[in-house]
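Exam review. A common question shows you a sequence with its structure tokens and asks you to describe the fold in words. Practice with the pair below. Do the first one on your own.
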Amino acid sequence: MSARSFTRVGIVGAGQLGRMMALAGIPLGLRCVFLDRGADSPGAAVAPILLGELEDARLLRDLASQSDVLTFDWENISAGALAPLAKRVVIRPPPAALEHSQDRLHEKTLFSRLKIPVTPHAAVDSRADLDRAVRKLGLPGVLKTRRLGYDGKGQVVLRDAAQLESAGALVGVGGLIYEKFQDFRLEVSIVGARAPDGRCALYPLSANTHSGGVLRYGIAPFHNAGLERRAAVYFKRVAAALDYVGVLAIEFFVVGGKLMANEMAPRVHNSGHWTIEGCATSQFENHMRAICGLPLGSTRALGHTAMVNFLGCMPDRDRLLAIDGLAYHDYGKEPRPGRKLGHCTILKPLAKQRDSALRNVLKLVHWR
């Protein structure tokens, strides 16, 4: 079978990212099947689903047997669980990307090897390691779990020596990283797709606003030609080093007018949701194009866009839909504090119109 004729896509994880990938694949004539724990997962509304643990060897073989190519919306599946499938099915992005992104220390080592700036850091496996790291890097700093932390989970900011004692519980689990605190004014992300032949399609930068480690809203395109050129260089270095195929996102702090890599995600990304309405081809469609060997689509912005997450509770749909230029996305998930339940996108021809509409939306959205 030619790499350009892939039509059956297996997706490990049926969350909102998987659902939006499947929805983007339908007009392309692609057929998707999911593997997920829950029959009520968002993706189950749009494609068949195999039910069970995401690393169940039998279910993964079953998924592979129904697929030409495997991808994932859950980045914490182990590369080891996917390895036995490599002779049965094409896996994109490559499992090596998972291995690097799942461990913050390995991730920073990769960035540093590729001459991409990162915050000074040190591995921490004991209280003695933490004390040495604080002496070397100073306070304030951020102590994080190396694995499985996302959306602000598994991390604590240490601002003075007294807090080292309260960090003891986290130190006890081992496998940590201590990072020098960066007083950044802005966080931006670059999202792009890389095809099997190495060609890349990069989206304009998005400027992101977080609280508690969770993305609240973002605006795009964020116009800064210098930062965008540098982000594109860094993206291509990472993608080439990993022989990457699919959509990749890299988040950066802007410190002193320069980029400092924070983390990468080997999948479609929350900060790229604006591309559904805001670009000629969404990140989800370009991911499906890339992994199936189809030509990448244009990443041209169609106007000025804002994306707002719905966290913990859904807003008043009628009032939001009354705002001109707003698109509403409900993931069909049960509410609980901090859970991503949906998002909306605002698309306007002018930045000032976008910003005005965003202010109105933020009055109607309550994060819990």
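Now try the second one, then compare your answer with the model answer below.
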Amino acid sequence: MIVEAEGTDIIRIYGSAREVVRILYPPQVLLPVLIITAGYIAGFVLEKVVLAGILRLARKSKWQGDEIIAAGFRRIVLLWGVLAGVYVATLTVALTPAAHDLILKILQVAVILSLTIVLMRVAVGFINHYAEKAKGIFPAATLFINVTKLIILIIGLLVALQTVGISVTPILTALGVGGLAVALALQDTLANLFSGIHIIASKQIRPGDYIKLETGQEGFVTDINWRSTVIKALSNNVSIIPNTKLAASIVTNYSFPEQEMAVLVQVGVGYASDLETVERITIETARQVMKEVPGGVPEFDPLVRYHTYADSSIDFTVVMRVQEFTYQYPVKHEFLKRLRKRYAEEGIEIPFPVRTVHLRERPRAGP
């Protein structure tokens, strides 16, 4: 239907309803739409049926890598179905060579970028998998993951630019010159970035470790990102430490080189106590606590070491062992309760500080 208006009074309508349908829905438009729709349907079927079936089989496999690879293609298969439909549709439409070449380049860039996304997902998946599998050896941190993503993304963008005919050499040159200016402007940021990389690479401070800084902050390392390290204290408070500060600080790592750690408990008994009996009862109590209290190391044989003749007691150290830092608190708690009860049953005295004061009467002056 063609509508012409001359002024405001004359409206001429040409054609019939058949011509209207032919003009609004010409075959050269309808066929490409059907092809793109078919590509979408094909991608949907591959996504929901084929890929879902592969994922189910991968979850049953002993190797988790196939599941990580299959999961990387989620929602990408559907996109590829649409892109394939668009490509086939362009072959059915009369386009100028320039337009056809432009559409082809756009499709190539879309495929390259989608493959880049797949590689990023797979790389991050393997990083997390091996970090969990080799805990304490292969660190999983936000910084390491983000750097991996950035490297893959830059490579994908450079390949895409090279594919569409844009030379990447001038871009790399410009990045090199501009990078110097950026490095001067962002000295602190880059210092934190490289300090974070050094912390991760050294493997001396890892996510999950319990650390204490010389400045007093202590807690579990929950994350190491491009700027700072996040430490969560037992009180559930969070300390955010710049990576440069952490790298330059004296740090005590209670989880390195292993999670297990010794627990030292100071005890004192009266001078009238039989030290052989005290040692035997103390070791029996410590051994029982380490076997029954969660977090203790049952196979470790506790030790007693006498070390001081104090003012009112003979002092000694009881050496036990726990699986990680936080388990020392329930182990100490239960040990002290049981030890006091056993000492009371055996008649062993736990003395409190006693000081004897001798008073002398001064001689009176004069008669």
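Model answer, second protein: The beta strands are 2-6, 10-14, 210-213, 218-224, 228-232, 238-242, 251-253, 261-269, 303-309, 314-322. The two ends are 143 Å apart (CA to CA). Full marks require stating both points clearly.
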